[in-house]
């Protein structure tokens, strides 16, 4: 192995040890999350790399993982290692169900949760929809997914009380869902409030 390869492996090994230390000590968690959070970067995937990166993140679930043409995918990285993914897409207004801009599939590897990767991914989805001229961005989540509910409300989403839309989500997913909406105003900047942009 050349020097560059072993240096990259060493950095990833150091990151893994730091993550373990963070998980094992409250003081290290506070310090380490702050430090590692600064190392989180987000970038948009090209069409050519989507399937490979998304299935790599899915791990054992890779057999059922697929990417959808036309959907935009962002991946969060810590020291060059993919640790999270989100997609954002527009259903045409003439679609049978669920028209409009949606984001979904937010996933962050468990050992990297709490570092801000999910927030940066969701902020990238918000920014993409806003820059595309969408009047709003929608997402659904399970009623018990308190992490997602907290994160989405932090970035300006509100629970949407729309029985018809909830029924459509239930038809698609087979289970009850909470639908959240982030509405954009004409005066609002393209970045989500309080959220860093992708690097």
Structure, described:
The chain is of the alpha+beta class. About 40% of the residues lie in helices and about 25% in strands. The longest helix has 22 residues, at about 5-25. The protein starts with a helix and ends in a 16-residue tail after the last strand.
Query: Unreliable segments (pLDDT under 50, ≥5 consecutive)?
Result: 1-5, 60-64, 192-199
What is the topology, as strand order, of the major beta sheet? Answer: 1-2-3-4-5-7-6
Rg of Cα set: 18 Å
The SSE string, one letter per element, is: HHEHEEEHEHEHE
> How much of the polypeptide forms β-strand, as a percent range?
15-25%
Q: Which quaternary structure do these chains form?
A: single chain
Q: Which structural class do the helices and strands define?
A: alpha+beta
Give the proportion of residues in helices. Answer: 40-55%
Question: Would you state the CATH class of the largest domain?
Answer: Alpha Beta
Helices and strands, with pairings:
Blueprint (H helix, E strand, L loop, with lengths): L2 H22 L1 H12 L2 E5 L2 H12 L13 E7 L2 E11 L8 E9 L8 H15 L4 E6 L4 H9 L3 E2 L3 H11 L4 E6 L16
Parallel strand pairs: 4-5
Antiparallel strand pairs: 1-2, 2-3, 3-4, 5-7, 6-7
Helix pairs in contact: 1-2
């Amino acid at each position: 192995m050349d020097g560059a390869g072993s240096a990259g492996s060493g950095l990833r090994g150091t990151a893994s040890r730091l993550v373990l230390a963070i998980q094992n000590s409250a003081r290290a968690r506070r310090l380490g999350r702050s430090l590692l959070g600064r190392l989180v970067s987000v970038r948009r995937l090209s069409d050519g790399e989507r399937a490979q990166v998304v299935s790599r993140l899915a791990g054992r679930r890779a057999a059922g993982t697929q990417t959808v043409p036309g959907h935009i995918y962002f991946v969060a990285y810590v020291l060059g290692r993919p640790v999270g993914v989100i997609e954002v897409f527009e259903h045409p207004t003439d679609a049978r169900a669920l028209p409009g801009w949606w984001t979904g599939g937010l996933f962050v590897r468990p050992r990297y949760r709490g570092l801000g990767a999910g927030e940066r991914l969701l902020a990238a989805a918000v920014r993409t929809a806003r820059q595309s001229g969408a009047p709003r961005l929608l997402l659904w989540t399970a009623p018990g997914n308190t992490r997602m509910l907290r994160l989405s409300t932090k970035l300006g989403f509100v629970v949407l009380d729309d029985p018809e839309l909830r029924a459509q989500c239930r038809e698609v997913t087979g289970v009850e869902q909470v639908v959240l909406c982030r509405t954009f105003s004409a005066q609002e900047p393209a970045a989500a409030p309080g959220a860093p942009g992708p690097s």
